[in-house]
Amino acid sequence: MEVSAALADYGLLPTDVTQRQDIEQLVDRALLEGEGCISFTGFLQLIRRIRERSRLYENERLKRFFSECDKDNDGFLSFAEASSIFSKLGLTPQCREHQDEMKNLLLRVDVDNSGDLDFKEFQVLVQHITESKRANQRNKENATGTKLGFSQDQVTEIREIFKQLDAHSQGTLGIIECRKLLTLLRVDMSAEELKGILDSISTQQRVDLEGFMAFLQKVGKDDRCPALAESLAPQLRELGEDDQRKASFQDFQKARSLFVRT
Ligand SMILES: [Ca+2]
Ligand SMILES: [Ca+2]
Q1: From the CA of 80, which ligand is nearest?
Q2: What is the pLDDT of residues 10-40, one digit of tens each?
Q3: How far apart are the C-alpha atoms of 167 and 12, rounded to whole Å?
Q4: Fewest CB atoms within 10 Å of the CB: 44, 113, 197, 220?
Q5: What pLDDT, on a 0 to 100 scale, did the predictor assign at position 38?
Q6: Beta-sheet strands, E only, within the chain
Q7: Which residues, chain by chain, have CB under 5 Å from ion ligand 1?
């Protein structure tokens, strides 16, 4: 149980039930090998196994996408067939310019100039799409941050804070995570007040990064919390650099002590 919670904090517990069971089996095996407990080395080994497994899942997902796109089942994607992956991944071309960009991208990933895509070329295509989606999202978030009066440095800090609070890598934060942040900042806020703020931002009471910035702006305007991003930044920096911070058990413990103050 403890191990599962730790893995969830790492964002390593999949939401898919079958995959989750599969991971839990890996955990059980590690527990069995360690005769009921997992050492630090054992834990790292377990994480490595789970990451391998995740890559496998990702590959299976891509293969599924590929065969869904391959309407005539010839094992290759014509450009027309490949185009459907854009909308599948949430990137429907909005204008002529986007259509041209997508066409250029298809031409670019078709490295053997065959006029269609094999699975390898398709993998590169998906990678490009995912990256450009991420970049678009980032630009949108930065613009929102500016509109809310945050500097780009502050937006970067807030993005870090968000990632730290989003222990399950869901992409949104709920009332519990926002409460954790307030506790960390020692801001005293009633449940109604917190709920009210979240309600004013999102109907689901869950905020993505943009909603979180709106939340911080509202909380930061409060006298109880004068310099929000600044007061968190040094503590967060201690947690380590970028994704590396998720890689060490000590860092994980540090993160927990910061955010899990129950
Ligand atoms: Ca085909
Ligand atoms: Ca090709």
Answers
A1: 1
A2: 667 676 778 778 888 888 888 888 888 888 8
A3: 10
A4: 113
A5: 82
A6: 77-78, 116-117
A7: 70, 72, 74, 76, 81
Structure tokens at 130: 């995912």
Asked whether the beta carbons of 3 and 31 are under 8 A apart, the reply is yes
Distance 110 CA to ligand 2 centre (A): 4
C-alpha pair distances (Å), 28 with each of 7, 11, 65, 82, 237? 13, 18, 31, 41, 34
Ligand that lies nearest to the alpha carbon of residue 109, given by its number in the listed order:
2
Residue 79 CA, ligand 1 centroid: distance in Å: 9
Kindly report the length of the chain: 262
Share of the chain above pLDDT 90, in %: 34
Q: What's the rounded Cα separation, in Å, for the pair 87 and 147?
A: 29
- Arithmetic mean of pLDDT, 224-228: 50
CA of 84 from ligand 1 middle (Å) equals 12
Rounded to whole angstroms, the Cα distance separating 52 from 200 reads: 41
Handedness of CA 214, 215, 221, 226 (dihedral sign): negative
Phi-psi region for residue 214, left (φ > 0), alpha (ψ -120 to 50) or beta?
alpha
